Amino acid sequence: MNLKTIGKNTIIYAIGNVCLRASSFLLIPIYTHRMTIDEFGAFANLLITIQMMVFVISVGAQTGLIRYLQTFEQEGKTGELIGSTFLLTLGSSVLVTIFSCTMLSGFFSRILEQPDVDRLIFFTCMAATVQAICVEMLAYYRARDEAVQFVLISFVNIPLLIGFTVYFLYVKNGGVLGSLYAYGISYAILACVLLLRIFPKIGFSVSWNAIKTMLWFGFPMIISMVSWVVIGGSAIYFLSYYASLESAAVYSLGQKFGQIANIILLFPFQLAYEPVVFANMANDHVKEKISSIITYFIIAFLITATGILSGTRLILPFVAPPQYTDVFIIVLFMMPSVLFQGLYSFGATLIQIANKTYLLGIGSFCFMAGSLLLNYILIPQYGSAGALVSLNIIFMLAGLLALLVGIKNYPIAIDLRRIVLLATAFIVILLIFFLVRNAAMLTFIGTFFLLMGLIVSFLLWPGFLTNQERAFFGRFFLKLSWR
Fold this sequence. Notes:
Layout: H1 3-26, H2 28-34, H3 37-58, H4 61-74, H5 78-103, H6 105-112, H7 117-143, H8 147-154, H9 157-171, H10 175-202, H11 208-243, H12 245-258, H13 260-279, H14 286-319, H15 327-353, H16 357-382, H17 384-409, H18 416-435, H19 441-460, H20 467-482
Helix pairs in contact: 1-8, 1-9, 1-13, 3-5, 3-7, 3-10, 3-11, 3-12, 4-5, 4-7, 4-11, 5-7, 5-11, 7-8, 7-10, 9-10, 11-12, 11-16, 11-17, 12-15, 13-14, 13-15, 14-15, 14-18, 14-19, 15-17, 16-17, 18-19
């Protein structure tokens, strides 16, 4: 397993994710100024619903394609694997749409407080379907380690999503339904581009063996993937139901800022890390490399979290009206949950290597149940504060348990000393940001530079990094600066 390859692909994926997801952040001022806060809260509910539906409709195929593409390629059956996955997606979409339109109408009528709820539900299902197809087809490029192709094709969605959203909100005054149209149409066009690029090259066929393989591997992943969306997003449902759409809107915007860490760090790490690990499972040094990567990830997260918290405070007044001023405190207390999401992803990979994905399904279902219970108890009484407490408790337990179970099934050595030091530094950073949350802007900016200096000093402290690591990072950043 080549750390250089993972580092290079992580940067490529990070750049791609930042640019791709930048479209959603460019849309924040459009959403918050062209929709009322209640409409934005309703739209946030639909976006969370789409993310849940994507995993159900795709039948866990994204990870399955990464896991099995090399095997089917060696047998000359790539078209069979991709074609069978595509057929599964269409069949699953029909079932999800029928269920949602017939069984969930009453629930969405209660929380959305919008006219024509049935149409909103139907187009939510359609948007989820085309996004699921995009995710699966892009996984083809991930599995082949074609990071540049993955990023370039993903860029197609940026001007589409922005352009259609501006059209439907500014020209048509479409509100929630218009935003949903823009979302679905942009992903539909991207899906067509991917299908027209991939199928002519690999062919299209369907086999029961490929369907069975994807279902066997992917079905437990449905529970796992949906569970994490529920854990991260069900608070929006509860806030809409027990508090108000306004509370849901503020919490949702806080999530968007908090997820910047996922966009620029966690997702790129996963995109680059998983394919290389699965392709090098027989390598004798893979365990040592995984252990090092976990430590490096936490280091990178400390720097990322510091930047996110500073950036949120600085740009929030420019992207959202005064009703959203509580967003910073939500982002601040959401940071621990994001860190533990990262640790969970490493533990999950170890469990997948051992081919025990059913453990992920069982564990995720239990954590989802715990999250729903905590949200039900805490949110009616404490609102957004209760949602944050629930979120951090669940992700802390999930991250630690996933690592423990993963290490038990695929033993690796954890650098506990450095991880404890990094955890202590993270707590100190959060405390400092909490103390200066209401400080003047110049004081806040000064605090940011002070913290970054302290982090660098901490990392350069004698004995924290080995000489080999210092040399590696020195060469890495020198080469990066020349590029």
